[in-house]
Structures are given as structure tokens and as C-alpha cells.
What we know:
By secondary structure, the chain is α+β, with helices and mostly antiparallel strands. The chain has four domains: 3-35 and 216-274, Nucleotidyltransferase, domain 5, CATH 3.30.420.60; 125-208, Ribosomal Protein S5, domain 2; 284-401, Aminopeptidase, CATH 3.40.630; 419-490, Hypothetical Protein Ychn, Chain: A (3-Layer(aba) Sandwich).
Amino acid sequence: MQQDILINWTPHETRVAVVESGSVQELHVERSLERGLVGNIYLGKVARVLPGMQSAFIDIGLERAAFLHVADVWHRQADGEAPHSAKGAGSAVPIEKQIFEGQALMVQVIKEPIGTKGARLSTQISIAGRLLVFLPQDDHIGVSQKIPLEQRDELRSRLQALTGPQEGGFILRTNGEDASDAELSEDIAYLRKAWKRIKDASTRLPPLSLLHQDLSLMQRVLRDLVGEATQTIKIDSREQFDALKAFGAEFMPMASEKLQHYKGERPIFDLYAIDEEIAKALARRVELKSGGYLIIDQTEALTTVDVNTGGFVGARNFDDTIFKTNLEASQAIARQLRLRNLGGIIIVDFIDMVREDHREAVLGEFRKQLARDRVKTMAGGFSQLGLVEMTRKRTRESLAHRLCEPCPACEGKGILKTARSVAYDIFREILREARQFNPREFRVVASPKVIELFLDEESQHLAGLSEFIGKPVSLQSESAMGQEQYDIVLL
Length: 491
């Protein structure tokens, strides 16, 4: 299926939409302030070596010096064995014998700075590609342990044949399990070019320079999203178009040929109503064209998708209505998983179907739609309860987690106690306080809706409580308080 990729760039945010046949299939968002440091390669300067802690502080140009432990220092043993970090060595070489103060040192960030702690560094460099991880200081050819054991030897042999005798090792990532030789070769060429550019920069630039930064979202579009089906990649910034064109010409010439600078007057995302699609992708309910709908709930452990017929009564009988709704839902669910980037365990509750051929047809259509996903998915059959269990590999935060935060009023529960329930909580709390303390007066500070309830429908109960405890109860409305929040002040 033919696709177009739209890139909307502003200095603070980059948004990417993958559109197929006029319908948005994927959304990607990156914000400049949220880009982390992990993976960045710097030419650092050793500020201080601490033999007692077997560590060193390295200045890489950040606010705080970064931390390098001896276990993360790469070195080559005297007998000429393959390079590795001190962590893997038979007898660790003390850090003071490997580095010295004032030394220029190529380092990579492996842990973000947190609070008052600086970033954690390693001198063993690794560069991640789409399918492979390149280890320029190593000669090891490895395969991800998440790939089944019986496939690893064959994949390792393929990779060894493709990499040839040149220096450097590679690790095949899980999403490279089904990659063709051409795709692997393209990734190998990109990674070797990237390492050559890093080495060249390390000889030209002064210490404290950034030598390599993990690819931006726009660059990852060329590396990860462009395929044979991609017709155009439209970007609405001339400056970024020129930069991306230069990057693509060096590393991905085939993809860069599809780049176009969008010059239209209307915002590029308005062409396909993509802002509306983003709003829908954050909603819990998804309408189907037939009148049915989906309810999608994300929890900590899994995501559930419930299919409902809604107002769809177009078929001749009830079984056909259910079947057609489930068929449409199977297509919509697969699209929503891509659009929202939902990962982990996903449970789909299709409407119960009596006929076995209907169940098989729906399951077949669902698997067919999932096969279009660039992220690895696995779906089982219908369980005894009529549920379909599936998994989708987590690649990054879901769209909702990236764009939203838990509601401060309900703390992410999605529901609030009613004003009456809060009022009765307050009654019970006043009774508890009255047994322990003997104040002159109790003052209730709560949200306007709760206070209004006390003054109107619950006024008799409040008066009765005041008479029972023998103390006056005054009320104070606080508009800044949420409905479930309240204070009882002892005066």
C-alpha cells in the first residue's frame, strides 16, 4: 500500500505522520527539551582520577562532570586478545594505570544525569542502527538473546558473511530477525560511515566537543520509516529540508530522493486533518463507520480493547451485524495500535460470535492487518472466554504517555468520588476528631460543590452532627481544591 510521510517541524517540536490512502497510520512526536543524552558520544577531558573509588570524573561540557567507573573502561589486554571492558577482564587493570588527569578521552553516555549526580559514562562505544548495534572496538558477532536459540547460529553466520573481515563487531537486534541481506547490508554501511565520521571529528575537534548524537526523529524517518511503498517525504521547513537532504545524501541516498519541501499556505498537518486524528488517538472511545465503537483502556499491566455494536443495525440478522462489526473492528484495532503505539500485552474482546466460520474470518482479518505493522506482533486464537490475547513489542512510550499526564483531580483513576460521598467522609472524620480532641470549633475547608451540598441538602445532617458532638461546625469554600480534597481545621 502506497504511503506518504509528513513532517511538521518547529524549533521546540517535531511531528511525523505516516499516511496510507489518505488515512493516518502512525504518529511520532519528539520535543527538543525531552531529548536525552544516552547514546551521545563526546570527546571528554579527564578532570580527576580517584584510585580509592576506582573511578574518574570526566568533563564533557555539561553543567556537572560525568562519572566513569573502572568497570566501564575499555582496554586491550597485553597479549593482544580482543578488546573488552575491565568488567569482563580476568584481572581488572586499575583505573589510574589506564587514564590520567588532563587526558582527552572518547566517552559515551550510558545513564542520564539525575538530580545532583552527573551522567554515567563508558569508553566502550556502541552505535545503534535500525537492525544492528555496531561495536567498533570489538570483533564480536552477536545475536539478541530475545531471538529463539535455534535461529541464532544461522543468523550469526549470515551476519559474519555480510560484515566481512573489516574491523568492528555487530549485534543483531530483535527487529532484525526477519530482515533481508540487503537491509542488513544497508544498516552495516550506515553504521560504518557513522563511526568513520565520529573518528574524524575526534581528531579535528577540541575536548568537550559532542562527536555524535543519537539520530533526531527526522533522521530516523529516513532510516526506519522509509520503504518501497513510500512515495514522498514532505517537510515544511526549508532549513530542515536542506539539512535532512544532506544527511540522506551521505547515509541513505535512496530515501533522500523522496524528500520534498512543502511550500503550501495551509499547515502541512491540515492536509489530512492530522491534528484531529491526534485528538481521536487520545480518546478512550473510537467510533466505527458502521455505527459500532471501540473502548480502549491502557493500564499498567496491559491494554484492553472492547468492541461494541452501538447503533449498527444494517445487516439482515443479528449474527451478520455482529460479524460485520467485528470485521471492521479488526481493521480499526490494528490501526489504533500503530497510531497510539500501544505495546505489551493487549486483550481484545470482540463481540461473541456463534458461527465458527465467522470467528475464523475475523481472526484471519485481524492477523492480516497486524502483519502490516513494522513493530513485531503476535496474536493467539480465541480463548474459552472469547477473548483474543496478543502482544506488541514496546519500542517507545505510547502516544498518550508522551502527550498527556495523569489528571490531578482523579490522579489517573478516571473517576471521582461524588460530592455526597466526600461530605459523608467529612462527617466521619469530624466524629473521629471529636473523640480525640476538644477544640472550640471545627472548620471544614472543601471544594465549592461539597460546601454547597452542606448548605443545602445536607444542612440538617450537619446541624445534627454539630449538636451530637457539642461543637459548632463552620464551612469555608476553597475553589482551588479538587472535589475529593478537604481539610478539617481545629480552632
